[in-house]
Amino acid sequence: MITVFGSINLDLVFNVSKLPGPGETVLCPDYFKAAGGKGLNQAVAAARARPSKDLSINMVGRAGKDEFGDIALTALEGAGVNIKNIRRGPEPTACAAVSVDAKAENQIVVASGANTMLKDDDLPDKLLTPETVLVLQMEIPLEANCKIIQRAKQRGVRVLLNLAPAAPFPGDIISLLDLLVVNEVEAKMMANHNDLDTSSSRAAASAIAGKFSVPTIVSLGAQGAHAFSNNEEWQIDALPITPIDTVGAGDSFVGNLAVGMALNNSLAHMLHGASVAAGLACLTQGAATSMPAYMTIEERLGDLPSAQKVPRL
Q: Could you give the angle at which helices 267-281 and 249-262 cross, rounded to 10 degrees?
């Protein structure tokens, strides 16, 4: 079982010729609405990437009683995610303004809305079992994340935290994790906050893994990813593609890692599938809409060499 405790958004996506600078207005012909939010995206990614529906995917979050909430929950349910533990209240569903330029780079502003109301007691104990992989991100209150991690570990749950967007996080809670996932910026910010090596993203992730004794993966976009665990380092390249929209790549990566954890796959095996899935997510516009299916990922595994062990820094 995978339980995702996190954010639910509605994305307004604008395709622009270039991303605006300070004080600049950029026009584009139209926009489209799509379900989003890191929690929702990762739940959809996991649901689509699972080999069978025997692996249940549960979403715990908050949404408003509005059109945006309807769109988001319909997308989750359509992907096969259990939405019975999503609470809807008077606060508006979170909304993200996503601009994507001609190079597939993006710029995102999020109004958090109902996500700010998510609390640890929104997640029932029945979704926290020794067979559960709990997936968390940083678009919800820090206090809720910390309390949930402590509760989960008391119940024998394996916990994956995607420290995105980056923010300071208590070291004693980080040490409870089973897997930490960061990107280049998040790795350096976390390392800097803890007075660790920030000379490179790889060095930062290695230092984080060592200090907190937590397996740590740093995603590097087109340069693939590095993983640090048990004094070993693994490296995986990125799937060779021409991206259309990179918005959903990180969440596709995390959702697929969660499936790998639930299936008790090796770290190297998890990296391979997640990297392929992240690349495939860049071939379709939108976030949740771009998450690839299990068979699509399986068919492309041969296009990317397996993860390799490399000498430690």
A: 150
Q: What are 205's two structure tokens?
A: 């992730």
Number of domains in the chain: 1
pLDDT in tens, 85-110: 999 999 999 999 989 888 888 888 99
The Cα–Cα gap between 75 and 33 comes to 12
- 39-55 tens-digit pLDDT: 999 999 999 999 999 99
* CATH classification at residue 69: 3.40.1190.20
User: What are residue 268's phi and psi, to 5 degrees?
Assistant: -65, -40
Give the range of the structural domain holding residue 43, as residue numbers without chain letter.
Answer: 2-7+37-92+115-310
* pTM for this prediction: 0.94
DSSP element (H, E) containing 160? strand 158-162
Which of these, 133, 91, 147, 130, lies nearest to 114 by C-alpha position? 91
Nearest to 93, CA basis, from 118, 115, 117: 115
Give the integer Cα–Cα distance in Å for 2 and 219. 22
The predicted pLDDT at position 231 comes to 87
| Stretches in the chain below the pLDDT threshold 70 | 312-313
In a domain, 103, yes or no: no
